[in-house]
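Now read these lines:
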Amino acid sequence: MSELLRSAAIRRIEAATMASLPAGTLMSRAADAVVDATASLARSLEARRPIVAWVGPGNNGGDALLAALRLREFGFAARAIALDAQRTPGGDAGEIWRLARSRGFPIEGAHAWEELLSPAPGRPAAPLPPIVIDGLFGIGLQRPLAADIAALCERIAQRRWPVVAVDVPSGIDADTGARLGSSAVRASVTVTMIADKPGLRTGAALDHAGDVRVADLGIGITQRQAALDGVPPVDRGRLFDREQASAAALARRASDTSKGSFGSVLCYGGAPGMHGAVLLAARGAQAIGVGRIYVGTPQGSLFDAGQPQWMSAASDVGFGRFDSIAIGCGLGDSADARAAVRRAIAEARALVVDADALNAIAADEALTDALEAKSLDARGTASAANGEPLEANTQTLEANAQPLAARGEALRCTVTPHPLEAARLLRVDVPRIQSDRIGAACALAAKLRCVALLKGAGSVVATPAGRWSIVDAGSPALASAGTGDVLAGACAALLARGLDAERAACLGAWLHGEAGRAWAREHRTEDGLSAAELHEWIRSVAAGLRSAEGFG
């Protein structure tokens, strides 16, 4: 499992490790990791690029400076530019500054950037642009970059200079993936220390982190886990990547089976003018391989001549007869639509709540209460959800987890909001959601007591017990009308095939995101993906999962 650790957990490991090692050991190991990444990048560029270490005042600056010193000793044309070349920092970083000066390695002031970016008249520009080592700020940064530094980041990005970021690109929140101000470093490679960070895998960070490489700094698993003992769930998550998807994939079909062996799904929505949405959800279910697919609307049956195998459901169909239901895709906001949401919550065996059904719940507290009660009926009693929108506290999460663990029951309800729908449900604005996507997903799961799949760049899946995952798949190509409907149907089909809600949400989001990536690679563009073709790409990605229990 690829673990994701927030800053608080990283600091615990770092402190425990440093107490048992000679001073400067971790900094030396971090510098070696940066050297390896920088040298590898230089080789890939087929040129012996000069190296410029951008040195901040803390340990990240020490890592970058030591890496530049070692690269020079290896024959690279390396130099260092500091935010404040006149002030030597304290601690291990200060020792590196003194070492560099003792070896005749100058630490230049910030004015040197102008010479690099805008050579004086009559002075030729460097034949090759440099590789920049970003050692400005690390995981402790909580404020926007200063205006002059932000402007310099933009100038470097405009010139497309390759950048190796130390631990996290400066200006990116290591815990949330949010950009702290108007600008941040755009890295080609990020060498992150000790463990992977959630802030490198979701939100704005996906456009800034580049290729993420984890340097464990020689910290053993036993030492690591001892330091993490007692760390709350919010500070520890996982990256749901291809390896995780292979482990979670459906079992191969046995020969002696029938359509009744693979579940039944009802896709319910499709108000007048929005029939396509519910039909797209049915295509998502089809891609997973569910046994029977039904389509229904509040206005009556709906038939797709292109998919004659799909069965029509009456407007007042009994929701309890299906193995799972996806409700909300194009449902509309009529009284009949809201009544259907109420019935689905009350009757469904397993439920995916999407789109207009989410809007109905956000607008009607009674529906929120009904969804909460539905989950409680399945799991026993639990404490009230935390009132702070983006802070699902540890006590709430533990209380939510206890009945589930005691009874061994899987939660069978999933909500699949995009950021605007999540904002409506939590009574906040979209920037608040995007500033802490993990916190938002955990808050939704705690409030509604079901699995929450917060869609977007680096989709987040959270449970009421406080577990959270970031799905390592996706593409801007998926920013197209109807692709979310396909995802809702796919998740409902995975529920119908017997997966619990957390596993279904993670696997469904990964298949959906990887399908978007595959389409973009094939077409060499992120423009033009049609939701109507997405299900075929999901089917292809699913077929490509090869594991002992994978798709056949």
Remarks:
- DSSP finds 19 helices and 19 strands in the chain.
